[in-house]
Amino acid sequence: xxxxxxxxxxxxxxxxxxxxxxxxxxxxxxxxxxxxxxxxxxxxxxxxxxxxxxxxxxxxxxxxxxxxxxxxxxxxxxxxxxxxxxxxxxxxxxxxxxxxxxxxxxxxxxxxxxxxxxxxxxxxxxxxxxxxxxxxxxxxxxxxxxxxxxxxxxxxxxxxxxxxxxxxxxxxxxxxxxxxxxxxxxxxxxxxxxxxxxxxxxxxxxxxxxxxxxxxxxxxxxxxxxxxxxxxxxxxxxxxxxxxxxxxxxxxxxxxxxxxxxxxxxxxxxxxxxxxxxxxxx
Length: 282
Known about the structure:
The chain is built from ten helices and nine strands.
C-alpha cells in the first residue's frame, strides 16, 4: 500500500510526517511525497534524509485536490493513505485502517480522528488507543484517509479546478451513489498541528463558498440543486458579512458566480435522491 504526502513549502514539517509514515507497524508500505511546486528545500531535504522515499515533483502548485489527483499515478499500492504533511500518525494507524477494510468488504474509504497539537511534546505515536469503534460515516477527512485506489475508476477524482475546500465533500457525495461505504475508525489517529498565527484566509474562504456552489449544481438532484442555489444567493452574503468579507464577496461575485454556474452545468452529473439523502441523513 502507498502513503501519499502532499507538500507545498513545508520542508521540515514534511520530514516529520514522512518519519511517522516510515514508523508504522505495518511495513509493506511505499511512501510517496508529492511536491506541489515548492520553492523551498522540500525536495532536496527529502531526498537527502529519505533516499528510499519516492518523490513526485509537480511543475506548480495545483492545490490540494489537483496535487492529490496527480499523485495517484505515482502510487503503486492497492490502497492509498493520504497523510497531511503537518501531521503525525499513530504507529498503528495503517494497520488499523487496513483492518477496517477487511472487516467491511463494502468500504471504499476509511477515515480517522484528529488530535490537535501545539507542541511536539503532545504527540505520542505509541499511546494506547482508548476508543476502538468503527462505523459507517457520511464523509471522510482528506488528510487522514485511506482509499481503495480502484474507487476512482467508479467515482472519478477530486475536482481538479478546486484549489482548496469541499473536495472531500464532493467525493463523499459521489461515493454514496455507489455500492461503497465510508467508515470512520477511531483507532486511526493523526496528530495535526494547530496554526501558530492568525492569517488572512479570505481567498480560501470565498473559494470554498464557490466550490460548494459548484458541488451542489453539478451533483445534487435537480430540486435540491435549485434549493441550494437560492440558499447561496441569500445566505452566503450574510456568511461573508459575519467574517468581515462582504466587500470581497461583492467584488468577486459577478465573475466567480457566473463561471461557477457555467462550469457546474457543463459538468452536471447528478447523483440519485437516495444517495443525496444517505449523505444528508448520516
